Amino acid sequence: xxxxxxxxxxxxxxxxxxxxxxxxxxxxxxxxxxxxxxxxxxxxxxxxxxxxxxxxxxxxxxxxxxxxxxxxxxxxxxxxxxxxxxxxxxxxxxxxxxxxxxxxxxxxxxxxxxxxxxxxxxxxxxxxxxxxxxxxxxxxxxxxxxxxxxxxxxxxxxxxxxxxxxxxxxxxxxxxxxxxxxxxxxxxxxxxxxxxxxxxxxxxxxxxxxxxxxxxxxxxxxxxxxxxxxxxxxxxxxxxxxxxxxxxxxxxxxxxxxxxxxxxxxxxxxxxxxxxxxxxxxxxxxxxxxxxxxxxxxxxxxxxxxxxxxxxxxxxxxxxxxxxxxxxxxxxxxxxxx
Amino acid sequence: xxxxxxxxxxxxxxxxxxxxxxxxxxxxxxxxxxxxxxxxxxxxxxxxxxxxxxxxxxxxxxxxxxxxxxxxxxxxxxxxxxxxxxxxxxxxxxxxxxxxxxxxxxxxxxxxxxxxxxxxxxxxxxxxxxxxxxxxxxxxxxxxxxxxxxxxxxxxxxxxxxxxxxxxxxxxxxxxxxxxxxxxxxxxxxxxxxxxxxxxxxxxxxxxxxxxxxxxxxxxxxxxxxxxxxxxxxxxxxxxxxxxxxxxxxxxxxxxxxxxxxxxxxxxxxxxxxxxxxxxxxxxxxxxxxxxxxxxxxxxxxxxxxxxxxxxxxxxxxxxxxxxxxxxxxxxxxxxxx
Lengths: 338, 338
Description:
TIM Barrel, homodimer, seven-stranded parallel sheet
């Protein structure tokens, strides 16, 4: 099938751009030095391409992602880089043979992990982002407590999420260094082999972590594109112009906000060139094409670049993989929901 | 099962609030005077409750919604209140016995409807919202063209979407009147029995339409709540506190932006009282609970009110229906995707 014949809206990945992004990151972070973040793509078919390239250790954000990866035979070394209390579902995976490690940052989460039957943990340390992770001064105590409870403490984790999107490189690196010094200090107290952290935005500057948690680099979005990295926009939503208002100078495509993550704002229209996004509705994207609306006809295809990759993918059932205008594969988004 | 034992995040509907909202609207717009908008809830189980209350004519925003409604036996009178070119799927529904009406606003969409085998249309008129709908001066010509092509023209449609969310009631009503005068004028030229339009925000003031397209009133969100209508917040996302940072004064729940429509901004936290939302990440909601974080403990439940109902529902597999703290039903969100 030609990509131009796809029913729309369709979530599309350009395979050449994807492979380029995969290869650039693999060169810098080979094998298990990279721990690809499944939350960015939620697809075992995509994950398998990474495993085939030697990246067999993954991290996840939800229990459902962990379960799906294990079921797909991708359970060599799965980290739940998130705190959860419903750990029994994860314990069941341990029994089935997958290697399951879970982030903990409190007495309660350690208790839940033990009760659930999970055996390995990382101590999650807050390195500046107001989210999960214990205050750094509690890391040592929690590590001791976890070991006393019979858990294997593999090391520490800390995500500099407040830093990865900063557009000024010097600013980004300076603030990352502060975060990573906090994490390194916690690691010295906690012990273990792993220092896990980082992301697409700090892929070429974070030299503190032993493994990089990156996912967005594979597909990319307009927010990360601003950082001037060598990763190409591989992800787009393909749409069709369904209405053109010539007196008003606008056109409407069938790529609405239910097909796009909107927390980073409006998407961009890559094709037709010159299109300017006005707003998104549930199932519509209104864009201007100049006073005569000459650049758009009903039935034309549009290519929309999302502002945020992760919540965009989570809205779709499948990723259609395209190479040179042909559909070459379908990757089900099989790790959605919870 | 108790609602408090639900795995989280869970999309929850309070049945008493839902029934209240349904009844208030049914009193004002009984039977087929109301054409409930399926896009707001994407669930045939929910739609069946409306049909049981006499609302057997529905409108949809996607072909998938139309197909699912017909398959569920809810195809008495289905309006696709949207322009599409892929009308063959809709023509197949006509053959199977469902009554299918489609909005058209151009030569191209009329051609597509004829080619697809759909037999009934509404002329969609732009009444001020820069989206679909023909310029009003083209409505008569398109009506003639549709009839010449053998289509039954049931009337006109025009959605005052630029007006329904205006918080000042007088402003909302004044602008609605302008829009509806445009629609009425187009109707006089086009003919047919139907003038379809309106929504939750104009439910008690739009006296121009013969049928009201409303959907959000059933579940509600914080954006519509600002309008001071008698509809109650029936929809929430139930979450669990997974991390508390006492020195920082914040807590983290497992209700992230992949569980929430974010185009209208951040959600609100209804419980615990006093919680103030800082930001959402993919799977996390960070909120402040005062300097001692006394109001939140790891394991506590939170109740999150979305800012926009439609894209929130579209992220979830199911709606869990709760009454007096007990789970009493599950409504699958079976009309998602395209």
